[in-house]
C-alpha cells in the first residue's frame, strides 16, 4: 500500500526506534551472539572442555596468543602519537592551521583521553567480535569548589563576584569599618568548566545497527544502549518528571549473556545492581540515530532520539552520528567483516587434543595401570596406594604383577603440532619471526639488514590491518573530533612544533581531507630517518648551492619527528628565527684593512685609466691639429698660386689697355702735333 508523507508524533518516532532496535538485537542474538560467546570462552582459555573426567585439562592458547599479538602490533604502531594521521593543507596559507588541527586532535586523543586504552579496546573488540566501536561526543562537566571571604573591601568583593565562574551560595554580610569604608563577608562557589571531547569504547552488546547498508555513515538505524541510573539521567539534563515516571524494569542489559560472560570472574551477578533509592534504579537507555521522514517533507533526515523503552527523553535533528568502527578483516559489500579470533579456534582444538594426548601418555607412563594375576597380590590396596618406600606382598616376583601394555604415542604427533602452528601463522599472518621468536632468523650469521627485511616481510598482513585501522577508524575519528571541537570547544594553548600556540577551534573552518602516514611496520620509521640523514649527507657534499640552511633544517626536523622526537626545538634551531651572526673583531679588522687596500687599488686603477685616457685624447688632438695644419698649408699654397695667376693676368690686361690707349691717342692727336705721349705701366 502506498503511504503519503505525514508528520510523525513522538509515539510514532519512538515506536520506529524501538522496532529497529528489536530487529537489530534479534539479528545479533541469532547470528553473532553464539559466535561471540564461543570466541570469548576460547580467548579466556575455558575451551575446549576436558574430554573425560580425570583427563588432562590443558588448553592451547592459540586464540589468546593470536589476538594479543595482533593487538600489540596495531597498538604499538599508533599509541605513540606520531602524527600518523594528519590534516592535509588545502592551500599554501593553510599549512599552519592544518598543523594546529592535527595537534588538537592528538591532544584530545592522547592527553584528554586515554588513547592507548581506546586503541587497545577497539582492536580487541574487532578481533573477537568482528567490529570494534567507539563513540565520540562532547561531555559537559564542571568542578565546583567552595570558598569563603571575610572583611573584604566592597570594591574587591564586587570585582570577585563579577567573575562569571563565581556564584554566591548565601547572602553576603556587609559591615561598616568606619571612615566610609565598608567590608563584605560571605561564601561562594567557583565553577570550573571541565567540558571536553570524550571518546569511549562501546561494548559490543551495547551497539545496535539495523537495515541494509555497507557504510555506517548511511546506516538507516544505529544506536547505543547502556545501563544508567535515573539519577544519572537527571544529571545529564533530562526532565526529572519524565525520568521518574519511567515504570517497570526497562533494563534489557541486566541479563545480557555477553556481558555476564565477560564479567563472571570479577562481578557478582545481581548483587551489584541493588539500590536503596529510586535515583539508583538502573534502566537501559537507548541513544538512537534513525533516518526517517518525521516532518512529513518527503525526505529522510537523521534524528537523534533518546528513549527508555517507549518513554521519550529527547529528540533533535543532527548532521551525523557519533560512532566510529573498525573491522580487522573487512569484507566487501558488508558492514560486518570476518572474525579474526574465530579462525584460530580449529588450531586451538587440534593443538589441545594432541597436547593432551602427550600429557596423558606421560602421566600413564609415570603411573601405569597394572595387570595382576588372580591371587597374585595378598592385599590389592598395597598396590593401589602408591607410596614411596611402600611394600607390596606378591605370591611370585616373576609373574604375579606386570604393567598393562600401552599403545605408544604416534611419532608424528610433535610434527603435527608444528604443522598446526604453521597453519595458524598462515591463517593469522602472525609469524614467530614477527614476534622475535625465530631462532633461525635471529642467528648471528644473518646481518641486521637481513633480519630487518625478513621481519618486515613477515608483517605484511599485520601492516595491512594497521592501515585499515588508520583509514577506517582514526581518520573518521579525527574528523568527528575536529567537528565537535569547532562546535563546542573553547580557546586553549597547545605546544606545536616546540612553540606554545593559542588556538581557537570555534574559528576554524570545516575540513574533510585527512592523510595517513603509511610507515607502520617494523623499523620503517627508523629506515625513513636513515634515508633522510643519507639525503642530508649527499646534498651537503654534492649540491651545497641547492641545499641551504632552511632545507637542511627541514630534513633534520623530519628525521627527528620520524624517530618520535616531537621536541625538535631542543635539538635544532629554526634558521628563520636566528639573528645574523656578529662578526669577529679581528676578522672585522682584517676585512676593513682588505677593504681599504681594495679601495686604494681601485683608485689607482681609476687614476691609471684616467691617465691613459688623457694620453689617448692628447695624441688624438695632436694628430687632428697636425692634419689641420697640413690642410691649411696646402690651402695657403693654393691661394698664393691663384694670386700670382691673377696678378699676371691683371698685368697683361693693364698692358693691353695702355697699349690700346696709346694707339688711340696717337690716332686722335692734332695734325700739327707730331709728338704724342702715352703712360705705360712699368710692369707692362
UniProtKB/TrEMBL annotation:
A Pfam family it matches: SU10_portal
InterPro entries cross-referenced by the UniProt entry: SU10_portal (IPR056909)
Superkingdom of the source species: Bacteria
Name of the protein: Portal protein
Amino acid at each position: 500500500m502506498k503511504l503519503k508523507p505525514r508528520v510523525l508524533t513522538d509515539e510514532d518516532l519512538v515506536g520506529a526506534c524501538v522496532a529497529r532496535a528489536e530487529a537489530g538485537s534479534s539479528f545479533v542474538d541469532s547470528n553473532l551472539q553464539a559466535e561471540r560467546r564461543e570466541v570469548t570462552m576460547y580467548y579466556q582459555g575455558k575451551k575446549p572442555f576436558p574430554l573425560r573426567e580425570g583427563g588432562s585439562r590443558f588448553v592451547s592458547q592459540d586464540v589468546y596468543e593470536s589476538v594479543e599479538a595482533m593487538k600489540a602490533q596495531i597498538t604499538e604502531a599508533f599509541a605513540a602519537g606520531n602524527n600518523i594521521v594528519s590534516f592535509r593543507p588545502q592551500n599554501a596559507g593553510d599549512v599552519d592551521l592544518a598543523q594546529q588541527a592535527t595537534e588538537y586532535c592528538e591532544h584530545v586523543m592522547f592527553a584528554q583521553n586515554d588513547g592507548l586504552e581506546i586503541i587497545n579496546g577497539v582492536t580487541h573488540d574487532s578481533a573477537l567480535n568482528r567490529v570494534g566501536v567507539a563513540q565520540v561526543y562532547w561531555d559537559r562537566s564542571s568542578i565546583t569548589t567552595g570558598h569563603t571571604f571575610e572583611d573584604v573591601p566592597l570594591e574587591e568583593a564586587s570585582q570577585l563576584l563579577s567573575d562569571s565562574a563565581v556564584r554566591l551560595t548565601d547572602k553576603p554580610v556587609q559591615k561598616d569599618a568606619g571612615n566610609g569604608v565598608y567590608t563584605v563577608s560571605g561564601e561562594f562557589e567557583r565553577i570550573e568548566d571541565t567540558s571536553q571531547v570524550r571518546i569511549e569504547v562501546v561494548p559490543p552488546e551495547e551497539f545496535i545497527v539495523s537495515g541494509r547498508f555497507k557504510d555506517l555513515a548511511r546506516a538507516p538505524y544505529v544506536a547505543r544502549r547502556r545501563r544508567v541510573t535515573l539519577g544519572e539521567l537527571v544529571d545529564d539534563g533530562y526532565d526529572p518528571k519524565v525520568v521518574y515516571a519511567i515504570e517497570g524494569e526497562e533494563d534489557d542489559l541486566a541479563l545480557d549473556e555477553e556481558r555476564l560472560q565477560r564479567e563472571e570472574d570479577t562481578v557478582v551477578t545481581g548483587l551489584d545492581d541493588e539500590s536503596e533509592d529510586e535515583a539508583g534504579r538502573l534502566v537501559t537507555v537507548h541513544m538512537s540515530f534513525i533516518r526517517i521522514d518525521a516532518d512529513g517533507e518527503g525526505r529522510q533526515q537523521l534524528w537523534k532520539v533518546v528513549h527508555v523503552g517507549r518513554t521519550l527523553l529527547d529528540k533533535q535533528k543532527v548532521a551525523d552520528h557519533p560512532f566510529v568502527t573498525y573491522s580487522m578483516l573487512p569484507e566487501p559489500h558488508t558492514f560486518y567483516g570476518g572474525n579474526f579470533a574465530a579462525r584460530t579456534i580449529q588450531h586451538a582444538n587440534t593443538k589441545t587434543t594432541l597436547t593432551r594426548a602427550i600429557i596423558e601418555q606421560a602421566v600413564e607412563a609415570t603411573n601405569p595401570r597394572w595387570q595382576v594375576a588372580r591371587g597374585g597380590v595378598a592385599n590389592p590396596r598395597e598396590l593401589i596406594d602408591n607410596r614411596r618406600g611402600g611394600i607390596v606382598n606378591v605370591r611370585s616376583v616373576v609373574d604375579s604383577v606386570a604393567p598393562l601394555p600401552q599403545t605408544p604415542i604416534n611419532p608424528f604427533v610433535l610434527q603435527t603440532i608444528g604443522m598446526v602452528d604453521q597453519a595458524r601463522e598462515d591463517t593469522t599472518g602472525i609469524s614467530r619471526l614477527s614476534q622475535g621468536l625465530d631462532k633461525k632468523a635471529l642467528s648471528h650469521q644473518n646481518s641486521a639488514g637481513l633480519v630487518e627485511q625478513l621481519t618486515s616481510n613477515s608483517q605484511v598482513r599485520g601492516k595491512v590491518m594497521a592501515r585499515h585501522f588508520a583509514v577506517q577508524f582514526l581518520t573518521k575519528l579525527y574528523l568527528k573530533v575536529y567537528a565537535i571541537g569547532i562546535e563546542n570547544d573553547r580557546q586553549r594553548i597547545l605546544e606545536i612544533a616546540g612553540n606554545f600556540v593559542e588556538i581557537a577551534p570555534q574559528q576554524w573552518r570545516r575540513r574533510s581531507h585527512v592523510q595517513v602516514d603509511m610507515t607502520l611496520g617494523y623499523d620503517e620509521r627508523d629506515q625513513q630517518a636513515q634515508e633522510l640523514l643519507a639525503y642530508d649527507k649527499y646534498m651537503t657534499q654534492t649540491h651545497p648551492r641547492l641545499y641551504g640552511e632552511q632545507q637542511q633544517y627541514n630534513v633534520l626536523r623530519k628525521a627527528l619527528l620520524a624517530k618520535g622526537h616531537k621536541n625538535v626545538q631542543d635539538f635544532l634551531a629554526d634558521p628563520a628565527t636566528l639573528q645574523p651572526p656578529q662578526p669577529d673583531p679581528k676578522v672585522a679588522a682584517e676585512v676593513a684593512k682588505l677593504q681599504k687596500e681594495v679601495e686604494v687599488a681601485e683608485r689607482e686603477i681609476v687614476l691609471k685609466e684616467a691617465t691613459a685616457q688623457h694620453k689617448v685624447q692628447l695624441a688624438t688632438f695632436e694628430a687632428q691639429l697636425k692634419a689641420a695644419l697640413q690642410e691649411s698649408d696646402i690651402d695657403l699654397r693654393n691661394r698664393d698660386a691663384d694670386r700670382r695667376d691673377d696678378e699676371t693676368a691683371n698685368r697683361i690686361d693693364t698692358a693691353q689697355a695702355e697699349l690700346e690707349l696709346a694707339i688711340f691717342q696717337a690716332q686722335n692727336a692734332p695734325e700739327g702735333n707730331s709728338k704724342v705721349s702715352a703712360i705705360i705701366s712699368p710692369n707692362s
